[in-house]
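2024-03-11 09:14:02 INFO queue: dequeued item histidine kinase, len=426
2024-03-11 09:14:02 INFO validating residues
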Amino acid sequence: MKQPLQESFKRWKTSVLQSLLQYHGREDHATVRILLLACIGTVAMPLYYVIWQHFFPQEYESLPLRLVGIVLCAIGLFARQFSRRMMDLYLLVTLSYIFPFFFTFMFLMNHASGVWSESLLIGLIVLFHFDTSVAVKAYLIGTAVAVTAVAMVGDTDVLGSRLVLQQLPIHWFTIAVLAAAKISREVLAQEKLAGLGAGLATVAHELRTPLTSVDANVRGLLRMCSEGAGPLPADRVGTVDALARIQFEVRHMNHMIDLFLLSATAVRRSLRPIETVSMEAVVAAVLKRYPFVNAGQQKLVALEVRRNFSFAGQSELSVVILLNLLRNALKAIQRAGKGRVRIVVDGGHAPPRLLFIDTGCGIPAQQMPLIFHRFYSFPPHNGAGIGLALCQEIMDAWSATIECVSRESAYAIFILEFPQQASLAK
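2024-03-11 09:14:37 INFO prediction written
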Protein backbone atom coordinates (compact mmCIF):
# COMPACT_ATOMS: atom_id res chain seq x y z
CA MET A 1 0.00 0.00 0.00
CA LYS A 2 2.86 2.35 0.90
CA GLN A 3 4.68 1.82 -2.41
CA PRO A 4 1.68 2.72 -4.65
CA LEU A 5 1.15 5.88 -2.58
CA GLN A 6 4.79 6.89 -3.04
CA GLU A 7 4.58 6.26 -6.78
CA SER A 8 1.37 8.28 -7.04
CA PHE A 9 2.97 11.14 -5.10
CA LYS A 10 6.05 11.11 -7.37
CA ARG A 11 3.87 11.20 -10.50
CA TRP A 12 1.80 14.05 -9.07
CA LYS A 13 4.94 16.01 -8.11
CA THR A 14 6.46 15.50 -11.57
CA SER A 15 3.24 16.63 -13.22
CA VAL A 16 3.07 19.79 -11.08
CA LEU A 17 6.73 20.66 -11.75
CA GLN A 18 6.31 20.21 -15.50
CA SER A 19 3.19 22.38 -15.47
CA LEU A 20 5.01 25.13 -13.56
CA LEU A 21 8.00 24.99 -15.91
CA GLN A 22 5.73 25.26 -18.97
CA TYR A 23 3.81 28.09 -17.34
CA HIS A 24 6.99 30.01 -16.52
CA GLY A 25 8.10 29.51 -20.11
CA ARG A 26 5.01 31.27 -21.40
CA GLU A 27 4.73 34.09 -18.87
CA ASP A 28 6.91 36.82 -17.44
CA HIS A 29 8.25 35.82 -14.01
CA ALA A 30 6.84 39.04 -12.52
CA THR A 31 3.43 38.19 -13.98
CA VAL A 32 3.60 34.68 -12.51
CA ARG A 33 4.42 36.03 -9.05
CA ILE A 34 1.59 38.58 -9.24
CA LEU A 35 -0.90 35.90 -10.28
CA LEU A 36 0.20 33.61 -7.44
CA LEU A 37 0.03 36.49 -4.96
CA ALA A 38 -3.44 37.45 -6.22
CA CYS A 39 -4.77 33.89 -6.01
CA ILE A 40 -3.40 33.31 -2.51
CA GLY A 41 -4.45 36.75 -1.27
CA THR A 42 -8.05 36.57 -2.44
CA VAL A 43 -8.43 33.27 -0.55
CA ALA A 44 -6.24 33.93 2.50
CA MET A 45 -7.58 37.39 3.37
CA PRO A 46 -11.20 36.30 4.05
CA LEU A 47 -10.14 32.87 5.33
CA TYR A 48 -7.88 34.24 8.03
CA TYR A 49 -10.47 36.83 9.00
CA VAL A 50 -12.75 33.95 9.89
CA ILE A 51 -9.95 32.07 11.66
CA TRP A 52 -8.74 35.03 13.79
CA GLN A 53 -12.24 36.35 14.42
CA HIS A 54 -14.13 33.15 15.31
CA PHE A 55 -11.83 30.16 15.86
CA PHE A 56 -8.83 31.84 17.52
CA PRO A 57 -10.06 35.35 18.39
CA GLN A 58 -7.39 38.06 18.43
CA GLU A 59 -7.42 41.32 20.35
CA TYR A 60 -7.95 43.40 17.20
CA GLU A 61 -9.33 42.57 13.75
CA SER A 62 -10.51 44.81 10.88
CA LEU A 63 -12.86 43.70 8.12
CA PRO A 64 -12.58 46.99 6.12
CA LEU A 65 -8.77 46.69 5.92
CA ARG A 66 -9.09 43.08 4.75
CA LEU A 67 -11.68 44.08 2.12
CA VAL A 68 -9.22 46.60 0.67
CA GLY A 69 -6.60 43.83 0.54
CA ILE A 70 -9.04 41.46 -1.18
CA VAL A 71 -9.83 44.09 -3.82
CA LEU A 72 -6.13 44.71 -4.51
CA CYS A 73 -5.45 40.97 -4.83
CA ALA A 74 -8.48 40.48 -7.08
CA ILE A 75 -7.18 43.19 -9.44
CA GLY A 76 -3.94 41.18 -9.72
CA LEU A 77 -5.87 38.29 -11.29
CA PHE A 78 -5.88 40.37 -14.50
CA ALA A 79 -2.10 40.86 -14.49
CA ARG A 80 -1.74 39.48 -18.03
CA GLN A 81 -3.51 42.58 -19.34
CA PHE A 82 -1.23 45.00 -17.46
CA SER A 83 1.28 47.17 -19.27
CA ARG A 84 4.80 47.25 -17.84
CA ARG A 85 4.23 50.64 -16.19
CA MET A 86 0.86 49.55 -14.77
CA MET A 87 2.41 46.34 -13.43
CA ASP A 88 5.20 48.24 -11.65
CA LEU A 89 2.69 50.63 -10.07
CA TYR A 90 0.39 47.77 -9.06
CA LEU A 91 3.25 45.86 -7.45
CA LEU A 92 4.41 48.86 -5.42
CA VAL A 93 0.91 49.73 -4.18
CA THR A 94 -0.19 46.15 -3.42
CA LEU A 95 3.03 45.04 -1.80
CA SER A 96 3.18 48.23 0.29
CA TYR A 97 -0.37 47.74 1.49
CA ILE A 98 -0.49 44.00 2.19
CA PHE A 99 2.87 43.03 3.65
CA PRO A 100 4.39 46.03 5.42
CA PHE A 101 1.26 48.11 6.11
CA PHE A 102 -1.46 45.57 6.88
CA PHE A 103 0.76 43.07 8.69
CA THR A 104 2.62 45.79 10.65
CA PHE A 105 -0.60 47.59 11.57
CA MET A 106 -2.23 44.38 12.79
CA PHE A 107 0.98 43.42 14.62
CA LEU A 108 1.00 46.74 16.49
CA MET A 109 -2.74 46.86 17.15
CA ASN A 110 -2.54 43.35 18.63
CA HIS A 111 0.33 44.51 20.88
CA ALA A 112 2.97 42.30 19.24
CA SER A 113 1.12 39.05 19.87
CA GLY A 114 2.83 35.81 18.91
CA VAL A 115 0.41 35.16 16.03
CA TRP A 116 1.03 38.53 14.40
CA SER A 117 4.77 38.50 15.11
CA GLU A 118 5.07 35.31 13.09
CA SER A 119 2.64 36.57 10.44
CA LEU A 120 4.64 39.78 9.96
CA LEU A 121 7.89 37.82 9.63
CA ILE A 122 6.34 35.55 6.98
CA GLY A 123 4.99 38.62 5.18
CA LEU A 124 8.48 40.14 5.01
CA ILE A 125 9.91 36.88 3.65
CA VAL A 126 7.28 36.88 0.88
CA LEU A 127 7.84 40.59 0.20
CA PHE A 128 11.59 40.24 -0.36
CA HIS A 129 11.11 37.43 -2.86
CA PHE A 130 10.07 40.21 -5.23
CA ASP A 131 12.53 42.64 -6.83
CA THR A 132 14.75 44.04 -4.07
CA SER A 133 14.33 47.71 -5.05
CA VAL A 134 10.53 47.39 -5.11
CA ALA A 135 10.54 45.42 -1.84
CA VAL A 136 12.66 48.03 -0.04
CA LYS A 137 10.39 50.87 -1.23
CA ALA A 138 7.29 48.91 -0.20
CA TYR A 139 8.80 48.06 3.19
CA LEU A 140 9.68 51.68 3.98
CA ILE A 141 6.39 53.11 2.72
CA GLY A 142 4.13 50.47 4.27
CA THR A 143 5.90 50.45 7.64
CA ALA A 144 5.89 54.25 7.88
CA VAL A 145 2.17 54.44 7.05
CA ALA A 146 1.35 51.66 9.53
CA VAL A 147 3.26 53.37 12.36
CA THR A 148 1.59 56.69 11.52
CA ALA A 149 -1.86 55.05 11.49
CA VAL A 150 -1.27 53.46 14.89
CA ALA A 151 -0.10 56.79 16.29
CA MET A 152 -3.22 58.50 14.91
CA VAL A 153 -5.44 55.86 16.49
CA GLY A 154 -3.85 56.88 19.78
CA ASP A 155 -2.11 53.69 20.88
CA THR A 156 1.42 55.15 20.94
CA ASP A 157 2.73 53.20 23.94
CA VAL A 158 3.01 50.01 21.90
CA LEU A 159 5.42 51.65 19.42
CA GLY A 160 8.24 51.82 21.94
CA SER A 161 7.44 48.62 23.81
CA ARG A 162 10.05 45.92 24.29
CA LEU A 163 7.89 43.34 22.48
CA VAL A 164 7.88 45.48 19.34
CA LEU A 165 11.49 46.68 19.39
CA GLN A 166 12.93 43.20 19.89
CA GLN A 167 11.35 42.13 16.60
CA LEU A 168 13.30 44.70 14.56
CA PRO A 169 16.70 42.92 14.64
CA ILE A 170 14.98 39.70 13.57
CA HIS A 171 13.25 41.46 10.66
CA TRP A 172 16.42 43.19 9.48
CA PHE A 173 18.44 40.01 9.70
CA THR A 174 15.80 38.20 7.64
CA ILE A 175 15.89 40.94 5.00
CA ALA A 176 19.71 40.79 4.86
CA VAL A 177 19.69 37.00 4.42
CA LEU A 178 17.12 37.20 1.62
CA ALA A 179 19.13 39.94 -0.12
CA ALA A 180 22.27 37.78 0.11
CA ALA A 181 20.37 34.83 -1.35
CA LYS A 182 19.35 36.98 -4.32
CA ILE A 183 22.97 38.01 -4.89
CA SER A 184 23.90 34.32 -4.91
CA ARG A 185 21.30 33.67 -7.59
CA GLU A 186 22.76 36.50 -9.68
CA VAL A 187 26.22 34.99 -9.31
CA LEU A 188 24.87 31.61 -10.43
CA ALA A 189 23.30 33.27 -13.49
CA GLN A 190 26.65 34.85 -14.38
CA GLU A 191 28.39 31.50 -13.91
CA LYS A 192 25.83 29.93 -16.21
CA LEU A 193 26.61 32.52 -18.87
CA ALA A 194 30.35 32.03 -18.41
CA GLY A 195 29.88 28.26 -18.70
CA LEU A 196 27.83 28.74 -21.84
CA GLY A 197 30.63 30.83 -23.34
CA ALA A 198 33.27 28.26 -22.40
CA GLY A 199 31.14 25.50 -23.87
CA LEU A 200 30.71 27.40 -27.13
CA ALA A 201 34.45 28.00 -27.31
CA THR A 202 35.12 24.27 -26.90
CA VAL A 203 32.53 23.32 -29.50
CA ALA A 204 33.93 25.94 -31.90
CA HIS A 205 37.44 24.55 -31.51
CA GLU A 206 36.24 20.99 -32.17
CA LEU A 207 34.23 22.09 -35.21
CA ARG A 208 36.95 24.16 -36.83
CA THR A 209 39.35 21.19 -37.15
CA PRO A 210 37.13 19.06 -39.42
CA LEU A 211 35.91 22.16 -41.28
CA THR A 212 39.51 23.14 -42.06
CA SER A 213 40.18 19.61 -43.30
CA VAL A 214 37.05 19.63 -45.50
CA ASP A 215 37.99 23.03 -46.92
CA ALA A 216 41.55 21.88 -47.76
CA ASN A 217 40.30 18.70 -49.45
CA VAL A 218 37.71 20.62 -51.47
CA ARG A 219 40.35 23.06 -52.69
CA GLY A 220 42.53 20.12 -53.76
CA LEU A 221 39.65 18.46 -55.62
CA LEU A 222 38.79 21.74 -57.35
CA ARG A 223 42.40 22.08 -58.56
CA MET A 224 42.31 18.53 -59.87
CA CYS A 225 39.03 19.15 -61.70
CA SER A 226 40.31 22.37 -63.29
CA GLU A 227 43.57 20.85 -64.56
CA GLY A 228 43.99 20.76 -68.30
CA ALA A 229 43.20 23.18 -71.08
CA GLY A 230 39.85 23.81 -72.66
CA PRO A 231 36.33 23.57 -71.30
CA LEU A 232 35.50 21.13 -68.52
CA PRO A 233 33.95 17.81 -69.53
CA ALA A 234 30.22 17.59 -68.91
CA ASP A 235 30.65 15.00 -66.17
CA ARG A 236 32.95 17.36 -64.24
CA VAL A 237 30.70 20.43 -64.31
CA GLY A 238 28.28 18.96 -61.77
CA THR A 239 31.17 17.85 -59.56
CA VAL A 240 32.71 21.34 -59.58
CA ASP A 241 29.34 22.90 -58.70
CA ALA A 242 28.90 20.45 -55.79
CA LEU A 243 32.41 21.18 -54.52
CA ALA A 244 31.83 24.93 -54.75
CA ARG A 245 28.64 24.50 -52.73
CA ILE A 246 30.53 22.52 -50.07
CA GLN A 247 33.16 25.26 -49.93
CA PHE A 248 30.44 27.88 -49.47
CA GLU A 249 28.84 25.88 -46.64
CA VAL A 250 32.22 25.56 -44.92
CA ARG A 251 32.72 29.33 -45.06
CA HIS A 252 29.16 29.81 -43.80
CA MET A 253 29.77 27.51 -40.81
CA ASN A 254 33.01 29.31 -39.96
CA HIS A 255 31.19 32.64 -40.02
CA MET A 256 28.44 31.24 -37.77
CA ILE A 257 31.05 29.99 -35.31
CA ASP A 258 32.59 33.48 -35.28
CA LEU A 259 29.14 34.95 -34.54
CA PHE A 260 28.47 32.58 -31.63
CA LEU A 261 31.93 33.14 -30.15
CA LEU A 262 31.54 36.91 -30.43
CA SER A 263 28.26 36.79 -28.48
CA ALA A 264 29.68 34.38 -25.91
CA THR A 265 32.82 36.42 -25.19
CA ALA A 266 30.80 39.65 -25.00
CA VAL A 267 29.07 38.27 -21.90
CA ARG A 268 32.37 38.25 -19.99
CA ARG A 269 33.89 41.56 -21.12
CA SER A 270 33.48 45.10 -19.83
CA LEU A 271 30.51 46.80 -21.48
CA ARG A 272 31.36 50.42 -20.74
CA PRO A 273 31.87 52.75 -23.74
CA ILE A 274 35.53 53.29 -24.63
CA GLU A 275 35.44 54.71 -28.18
CA THR A 276 33.36 56.73 -30.63
CA VAL A 277 31.65 54.52 -33.19
CA SER A 278 30.19 55.47 -36.56
CA MET A 279 26.80 53.83 -36.97
CA GLU A 280 27.00 53.65 -40.77
CA ALA A 281 30.42 51.99 -40.56
CA VAL A 282 29.32 49.39 -38.01
CA VAL A 283 26.18 48.50 -39.98
CA ALA A 284 28.24 48.11 -43.16
CA ALA A 285 30.67 45.88 -41.24
CA VAL A 286 27.81 43.68 -40.04
CA LEU A 287 26.32 43.30 -43.52
CA LYS A 288 29.75 42.35 -44.83
CA ARG A 289 30.42 39.97 -41.96
CA TYR A 290 27.05 38.19 -41.71
CA PRO A 291 27.05 34.62 -43.11
CA PHE A 292 24.10 34.88 -45.51
CA VAL A 293 22.92 31.50 -46.77
CA ASN A 294 22.90 32.69 -50.38
CA ALA A 295 22.68 35.80 -52.53
CA GLY A 296 18.88 35.68 -52.41
CA GLN A 297 18.86 36.01 -48.63
CA GLN A 298 21.37 38.86 -48.83
CA LYS A 299 19.07 40.77 -51.19
CA LEU A 300 16.31 40.66 -48.55
CA VAL A 301 18.30 43.14 -46.44
CA ALA A 302 18.32 46.83 -47.39
CA LEU A 303 20.26 49.66 -45.73
CA GLU A 304 18.91 53.22 -45.69
CA VAL A 305 21.20 55.96 -44.35
CA ARG A 306 19.14 59.10 -43.78
CA ARG A 307 21.95 60.71 -41.83
CA ASN A 308 24.93 59.08 -40.19
CA PHE A 309 25.76 59.65 -36.52
CA SER A 310 28.38 58.65 -33.97
CA PHE A 311 27.90 57.31 -30.47
CA ALA A 312 29.99 56.34 -27.44
CA GLY A 313 30.36 52.56 -27.30
CA GLN A 314 32.53 49.69 -28.52
CA SER A 315 32.80 48.60 -32.15
CA GLU A 316 32.88 44.87 -31.40
CA LEU A 317 29.89 45.06 -29.05
CA SER A 318 28.00 47.12 -31.64
CA VAL A 319 28.60 44.29 -34.08
CA VAL A 320 27.26 41.82 -31.49
CA ILE A 321 24.02 43.82 -31.13
CA LEU A 322 23.41 44.15 -34.86
CA LEU A 323 24.37 40.56 -35.66
CA ASN A 324 21.84 39.33 -33.11
CA LEU A 325 19.11 41.60 -34.47
CA LEU A 326 19.85 40.60 -38.07
CA ARG A 327 19.89 36.90 -37.25
CA ASN A 328 16.54 37.18 -35.40
CA ALA A 329 15.01 39.13 -38.29
CA LEU A 330 16.08 36.58 -40.89
CA LYS A 331 14.77 33.75 -38.69
CA ALA A 332 11.41 35.56 -38.44
CA ILE A 333 11.28 35.85 -42.24
CA GLN A 334 12.15 32.18 -42.60
CA ARG A 335 9.37 31.14 -40.16
CA ALA A 336 6.84 33.38 -41.91
CA GLY A 337 7.91 32.38 -45.42
CA LYS A 338 7.80 36.04 -46.47
CA GLY A 339 9.15 39.49 -45.68
CA ARG A 340 12.19 41.73 -45.94
CA VAL A 341 14.61 43.51 -43.59
CA ARG A 342 15.19 47.26 -43.63
CA ILE A 343 17.92 48.94 -41.55
CA VAL A 344 17.51 52.70 -41.16
CA VAL A 345 20.31 54.94 -39.81
CA ASP A 346 18.53 58.11 -38.68
CA GLY A 347 20.98 60.58 -37.18
CA GLY A 348 18.65 63.48 -37.92
CA HIS A 349 16.17 62.24 -35.34
CA ALA A 350 16.44 63.53 -31.77
CA PRO A 351 17.84 61.42 -30.21
CA PRO A 352 19.81 59.66 -32.99
CA ARG A 353 18.46 56.21 -33.66
CA LEU A 354 18.77 53.02 -35.63
CA LEU A 355 15.62 51.26 -36.84
CA PHE A 356 15.74 47.53 -37.47
CA ILE A 357 12.57 46.56 -39.34
CA ASP A 358 11.48 43.15 -40.56
CA THR A 359 8.15 42.19 -42.09
CA GLY A 360 8.31 38.53 -41.06
CA CYS A 361 6.18 36.72 -38.50
CA GLY A 362 6.14 39.47 -35.84
CA ILE A 363 5.94 38.85 -32.09
CA PRO A 364 2.73 37.91 -30.22
CA ALA A 365 1.55 40.61 -27.80
CA GLN A 366 1.74 38.29 -24.78
CA GLN A 367 5.42 37.58 -25.52
CA MET A 368 6.48 41.21 -25.87
CA PRO A 369 7.27 41.83 -22.17
CA LEU A 370 9.54 38.76 -22.16
CA ILE A 371 11.78 39.13 -25.19
CA PHE A 372 14.60 40.97 -23.36
CA HIS A 373 14.65 38.52 -20.44
CA ARG A 374 17.74 36.37 -20.09
CA PHE A 375 17.33 32.69 -21.04
CA TYR A 376 13.90 33.36 -22.58
CA SER A 377 13.45 32.33 -26.20
CA PHE A 378 10.45 32.30 -28.53
CA PRO A 379 9.46 29.92 -29.99
CA PRO A 380 10.54 27.69 -27.07
CA HIS A 381 13.96 26.00 -27.52
CA ASN A 382 14.79 28.49 -30.29
CA GLY A 383 18.28 29.38 -29.10
CA ALA A 384 19.81 29.98 -25.66
CA GLY A 385 17.78 33.13 -24.95
CA ILE A 386 20.77 35.39 -24.27
CA GLY A 387 20.89 37.46 -27.50
CA LEU A 388 18.35 40.22 -26.83
CA ALA A 389 19.10 40.25 -23.10
CA LEU A 390 22.75 40.87 -23.93
CA CYS A 391 21.78 43.60 -26.40
CA GLN A 392 19.80 45.39 -23.68
CA GLU A 393 22.65 45.07 -21.16
CA ILE A 394 25.08 46.60 -23.64
CA MET A 395 22.70 49.45 -24.53
CA ASP A 396 22.07 50.17 -20.83
CA ALA A 397 25.84 50.36 -20.25
CA TRP A 398 26.01 53.00 -22.99
CA SER A 399 23.07 55.03 -21.56
CA ALA A 400 21.16 54.08 -24.72
CA THR A 401 17.80 52.33 -25.11
CA ILE A 402 16.40 49.46 -27.13
CA GLU A 403 12.70 48.70 -27.47
CA CYS A 404 10.46 46.76 -29.80
CA VAL A 405 7.17 47.53 -31.51
CA SER A 406 5.50 44.59 -33.21
CA ARG A 407 2.31 43.18 -34.66
CA GLU A 408 1.93 39.45 -34.96
CA SER A 409 2.14 38.08 -38.53
CA ALA A 410 3.02 41.56 -39.80
CA TYR A 411 6.22 43.21 -38.58
CA ALA A 412 8.73 43.78 -35.78
CA ILE A 413 10.59 47.08 -35.35
CA PHE A 414 13.55 47.35 -32.99
CA ILE A 415 14.30 50.97 -32.09
CA LEU A 416 17.80 51.73 -30.80
CA GLU A 417 18.21 55.29 -29.48
CA PHE A 418 21.56 56.76 -28.44
CA PRO A 419 22.66 59.82 -26.45
CA GLN A 420 23.29 62.84 -28.64
CA GLN A 421 26.82 62.97 -30.09
CA ALA A 422 28.49 65.08 -32.75
CA SER A 423 26.88 64.15 -36.08
CA LEU A 424 28.94 62.97 -39.02
CA ALA A 425 28.47 64.07 -42.59
CA LYS A 426 26.52 61.68 -44.71
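2024-03-11 09:14:37 INFO annotate: Residues 151 and 365 are 47 Å apart (CA to CA).
2024-03-11 09:14:38 INFO item closed
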